[in-house]
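User: Thanks for the earlier help. One more: Amidase. Can you show the sequence and predicted structure together?

Assistant: Of course, both are below.
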Amino acid sequence: MEQLLTRVAARDEQVLAWSWLDPAQAQARARQAAEEIRQGVRHSPLQGIPVAVKDLIDTEGMLTTYGSPIYKDHHPTSDAAIVTALKKAGAYVMGKTVSTEFACFTAGPTMNPHNPEYSPGGSSSGSAAAVADGQVPFAIGTQTAGSVIRPAAFNGVVGLKPSYGVLPTAGTFPLCPTLDTLGTFSRTVGDQRLILTALAPHLPIANAVKNPKILVCKTPFWSQGDDEMLTEFDQFVADCQQAGADLEHYEMGPDFAALLTAQQQIMGVEASRALSTHYDQQCDQLSAPLVALIEQGMQVNNADEAAAHNLKARCAHKLQQLFRDADFIITPATAGTAPKRVDGTGDPLFNRIWTLLGLPAITFPIAEGENGLPLGIQLIAPLGEDHALIDFADKLQTLTRA
């Protein structure tokens, strides 16, 4: 903890990853954890490990603002379920990391640790940046569109968006209950095994898939990726094939393209409900982009919302059939490297449909762009196959490093 706080003191004026951090409290928690270990207490492999928690997640005794000035003095009186799970596993919360406003698209102060002129992504900006900068080993974030995978890729760390519902969301601000998913950040793929096993002990640990079949899925949005990302993606696929991977190219049909609009409609209408009181009573304290999102959501009628959910169900069924003969899907994680901060937090274009379908996804860096920023790959597995996904990502990353 002393080393981490030294790193924070040296770097966080440049990165601004933390929304709340009390060094004295962090040291006290570290001393308590160390004493438990000396006494032989071992709850899980996370015993004594500090974890950063996104500012969207209630944490007793710590300022939790949801990224909004409306909650600038909000101190929860109880922990969110994921914080309780962390403590039960023997980990402790080091502090709170910056979230965009209500986990939407209006950026907070966090900068990309690779270059402060660039965005760390969103909405889990601080969580990804703090891990990338070596200020904390693990962090918790959330994803409703692309808020774990995108910032993980932009910051060059490993990000896991588990299957929908694997990690408990009670006590996390409910922006969009049918999509909101807690996710985790780490510096290695293998570290994801530790944190998922500790936080989701109910999730079956399946044996690693032998000789998995991989579907190379450029998605209907392939043409919107930049040349650098598309070139590195193709090179990564070629590296996988040369390493002996069983690959098959898969072209998604028009229904999957329509999932993009479906995700945007569902997110918009549920966000408009979640934020309706703030819109009615405190609209002057909401950013213009968030007001626009709320108002767009208000325009989605019941028939369109039902149609979006029906399309989601049809596509989920198609993928279920597809996964009978295949094990994993590989796609780009983002359209390119991180944008300049003045241009926003980046487009979750390559993440939205997988979040909508609830499938587990993981990203890790595969290359460096000409601007010196990371580029990440995205792997997707069938629902509930989170551990198999981590094992596969770990193997694939090792194979392609050579």
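User: Great, one quick takeaway?

Assistant: Residues 256-306 form one domain.
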